[in-house]
Design a protein that fits this description.
135 residues; mainly beta; Jelly Rolls; 4-stranded antiparallel beta sheet; 1 helix; chromatin binding; Nucleoplasmin-3; acetylation; methylation; Nucleoplasmin_core_dom_sf
């Protein structure tokens, strides 16, 4: 099921926001970042937004995903840039406010197996019966 990620706002006072899920949660989670934009009150300065996560060796890495400036690029579409929680969004430069929006998808593992079973039964129902050859 898809859930709307309510978004977050990064400012000089709140430079980071961490999106995480319950460690005991058995589901698969995907967070997708759609839009990063400057909001009311932003100065004409470079605002760099980084995504901080972990690589395949479980080392923390920070990757800049947006460099916004009111006079030339106040908004950036990230085309549903998919991330694996936990992930931290950080205002690495500038004072914002920068708003981030996207969506959060939860895939329940039990649901996935039921869906597979349903798909198989639907395929079986759609097949035409095999008729004996005419002699």
């Amino acid at each position: 099921s898809d859930l709307l990620f309510p978004g977050c706002e990064l400012t000089a006072a709140t430079k980071s926001y961490t999106f995480q899920v319950d460690a005991e949660d058995d589901s698969d989670h995907i967070l997708a970042l759609s839009v990063v934009c400057l909001t009311d009150g932003a100065k004409d300065e470079c605002n760099v937004v980084e995504v901080v996560g972990r690589n395949h060796e479980n080392q923390e890495i920070a990757v800049p995903v947006a460099n916004l400036k009111l006079s030339c690029q106040p908004l950036l579409s990230l085309d549903n840039f998919k991330l694996q929680p936990p992930v931290t969004f950080r205002l690495a430069a500038g004072s914002g406010p920068v708003h981030l929006a996207g969506w959060h998808q939860i895939v329940h593992r039990e649901d996935a197996s039921f869906e597979d079973d349903d798909d198989l039964s639907e395929e079986e129902e759609e097949l035409a019966p095999i008729m004996p050859a005419k002699k």
